[in-house]
Specification:
mainly alpha; 17 helices
């Protein structure tokens, strides 16, 4: 594992032949992208380090873009300011995908600049990048999910889309890999919803679906106040069970071997769900917020086996 981390520190080995030979590479831009992923999306950062050189660097850029969009809500409490920032990224995507566009016309933002280079080099589809932005924009307006299916749709757009983009970077065009990406994205997204309950509560947003809360007669106020109860644990169990179901479905699908490295984040999802089960689905248990000290070694071991 340590040799991969050293590669990150030097970062030059991240550059692919195509990515660097086009004259596009920017050391400072790549360092910035890698650093914000490390700071704000550490588990996916570790998984990305274990990818082959062909996709490691552009994968970090894609994840950095996702971090920037996802952090809009955390960076301001003013809805109008948040809307402006989301619109900035939508406008940036439109600029990037204009025909015969040049780097000089892309906004002076390191993530935007690097994303332009990746898009031009790898021809990744715009629709998945747009989903990452538009879904966050819609959430800023509604701030809740009526049903578990609505939450699944949201995480499919925000998490599965990343896996689809990474498959595109790797040149994988396979319907089975796409299905696995969708299931894994939903699994990781649902698990993230549970594990980030404290963050959601801080923003006075109840991310748990209303239909499940109503099913067990749990109020939004109970969630915001982080009241542990048997009913609350039933709510958690239902969402966690759906996440686990998607994880199992993803793993049952036969995908091209090269896709296994892209789906490594499944290890972190499994680890969290297992830990949650051991805590008897007490979503507010403080230990669930601590980092996973063995995750790096688990990821490395599974990477050696080329499994997820």
């Amino acid at each position: 594992m340590f040799k991969y981390y050293k590669c990150f520190i030097r970062i030059t080995p991240f550059l692919t032949r195509n990515y660097s030979s086009n004259g596009f590479s920017s050391q400072n831009g790549l360092n910035y992208c890698a650093d914000i992923v490390r700071q704000h999306d550490y588990e996916n950062f570790l998984a990305t380090l274990l990818m082959t050189k062909v996709i490691r660097s552009p994968a970090l850029v894609v994840r950095a873009f996702n971090v920037e969009v996802a952090r809009v809500q955390d960076q301001t409490s003013d809805p109008q300011t948040a809307a402006f920032r989301v619109q900035f990224w939508l406008d940036t995507l439109n600029t990037i995908y204009k025909k015969d566009q040049s780097l000089s016309n892309v906004p002076a933002n390191p993530v935007a600049k690097e994303l332009f280079k990746v898009c031009k080099t790898y021809n990744i589809p715009k629709r998945h990048l747009e989903k990452l932005v538009l879904s966050r924009s819609n959430l800023l307006k509604s701030r809740y999910f009526r049903t578990l299916e609505d939450l699944e749709k949201y995480v499919d757009e925000t998490v599965s889309s990343i896996f689809h983009l990474l498959l595109s970077l790797a040149g994988i065009k396979d319907i089975h890999a796409d299905h696995a990406a969708s299931h894994l994205g939903k699994s990781q997204g649902l698990a993230n919803t549970l594990r980030s309950i404290h963050v959601s509560n801080h923003h006075k947003m109840v991310a748990l679906p209303l239909d499940i809360l109503m099913k067990y007669n749990v109020s939004q106020e109970d969630v915001l106040r982080e009241v542990d109860s048997e009913k609350m644990r039933q709510v958690t169990f239902d969402v966690a069970s759906r996440a686990n179901s998607h994880l199992e479905k993803a793993r049952r699908i036969n995908v091209p071997k090269v896709a296994n490295q892209i789906f490594l984040p499944a290890i972190a999802v499994e680890s969290y769900l297992s830990k949650l089960q051991k805590k008897h689905f007490n979503l507010f248990d403080k230990s669930l917020q601590r980092g996973n000290t063995t995750l790096a070694f688990k990821l490395y071991y599974q990477r050696l086996l080329n499994k997820y």
